[in-house]
């Protein structure tokens, strides 16, 4: 959807890719900074999540009326900053679940299912190549999610529940930037680069195949 809205704003595929890359880089920097510094453990996850959603929503609303590619790039960076803050708060809160694997799985599967249902429906046809419609629509969703996230616990002093006895027996100061941690970060980064490439060029690939934007979604 973001790629489609950026195309409606007059960007070509290279520009769309650059703008989305800037968004994701900003998101990654915030997530890594909050996790690596331990700052996320000292924040109120509800406040962090809501602030992140509202920041991204505000930037998307500004992007809805922006025609300058430079301003759009700046707004996408702000969207990424807000998304990183919200993602870090939400993911940290999930680690307090009694069964963290199940909690993360439910969130992941639900996001895919909801995305498939929404994107596969005809409700998005009116926003096809509509810059303001896409940006404002996503902004509204973010505000709703931010408010829903206020039901999360405060989580400023509690410790996460151990996922299994092996985890509970590990030293508390064990570095998460060992070989497995670095491999996970690198692998996840490469995965997102691939997903970003698909998002950026899926519209042009679908168009070349004779599909509409809605069909490409």
Written description of the protein model:
It is a single chain. This protein is mostly helical. Helices cover 71% and strands 0% of the residues. It contains nine helices and no strands. Helix 1 packs antiparallel against helix 6. 26% of the residues are buried. About 3% of the residues have low confidence.
Keywords:
217 residues, mainly alpha, 71% helix
Radius of gyration: 19 Å
Cα separation of the termini = 8 Å
Low-pLDDT runs of 5+ residues are 164-170
- Count of beta strands: 0
* Count of alpha/pi helices: 9
**Rough outline:** globular
Structural class: mainly alpha
Strand and helix order = HHHHHHHHH
- % residues in beta strands: under 5%
Q: What's the main sheet like?
A: none
Mean pLDDT: 81
Share in helix: over 70%
Would you summarize the structure shown here?
With 217 residues, the protein is an all-alpha fold.
Write the layout of secondary structure elements.
Layout: H1 2-8, H2 13-37, H3 45-63, H4 69-94, H5 100-120, H6 131-148, H7 165-169, H8 179-208, H9 213-216
Helix pairs in contact: 1-2, 1-6, 2-4, 2-8, 3-4, 3-6
């Amino acid at each position: 959807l973001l790629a489609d809205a950026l195309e409606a704003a007059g960007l070509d595929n290279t520009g769309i890719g650059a703008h989305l890359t800037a968004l994701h880089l900003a998101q990654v920097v915030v997530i890594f900074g909050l996790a690596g510094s331990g700052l996320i453990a000292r924040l109120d996850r509800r406040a962090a999540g809501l602030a992140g959603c509202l920041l991204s929503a505000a930037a998307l609303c500004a992007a809805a009326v922006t025609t300058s590619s430079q301003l759009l790039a700046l707004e996408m960076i702000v969207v990424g900053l807000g998304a990183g803050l919200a993602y870090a708060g939400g993911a940290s809160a999930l680690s307090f679940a009694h069964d963290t694997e199940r909690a993360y799985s439910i969130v992941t599967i639900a996001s895919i299912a909801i995305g498939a249902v929404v994107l596969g429906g005809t409700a998005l046809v009116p926003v096809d190549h509509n810059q303001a419609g896409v940006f404002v629509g996503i902004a509204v969703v973010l505000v709703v999610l931010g408010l829903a996230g206020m039901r999360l616990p405060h989580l400023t002093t509690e410790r996460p529940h151990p996922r299994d006895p092996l985890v509970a027996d590990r030293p508390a100061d064990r570095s998460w930037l060992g070989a497995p941690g670095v491999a996970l970060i690198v692998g996840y980064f490469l995965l997102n680069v691939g997903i970003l490439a698909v998002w950026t060029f899926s519209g042009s690939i679908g168009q070349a195949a004779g599909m509409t934007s809605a069909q490409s979604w």
